[in-house]
Write a structure and sequence with these properties.
about 160 residues; alpha+beta; Nucleoside Triphosphate Pyrophosphohydrolase; eight-stranded mixed sheet; 2 helices; 10 strands
Amino acid sequence: MPHARFRLVVALYGVLRDADWVLLLRRAGSGYRDGQLSLPAGHLDGNEDVVAGLVRELREELTIDADRDSCRLVLVMHRPPESSDDHEYLDLFFTVGAWAGTPAIGEPDKCGELVWAGIRTPPADTVDYVRAALGEIVEGKRTLLPYGWSAPPGEQPA
């Protein structure tokens, strides 16, 4: 019997900035990290390229039309499952340089508020791996961040 191929979930994150400020949303009603702040994000649905998926998610979550050509991949994160029924994640973080419209809550059943926060010092209630990603994006030294894995001997865990 052939072995099933390994699969992971791809999530897309939009980093909308205004100088040293970044737009975060407070998760609500989804059952995942409710009450915490995160970047606007969503899953790649399939049959769409990653930038099309990001643009779709930003339209759904923030009611804006992101300029596809201004979206730049700035960080790739690989995370282990958070629970026994979860999957590994490949998180793709994109800066969004231009968009049309004013960000507003597009999915009130999944978002409680929008918050402009300092990108260098996101609030303490920001999702842990999003805080780590923002730190890496600001630092600009790495484009790949394994996060939440046990470290090989002699190394510090992410």
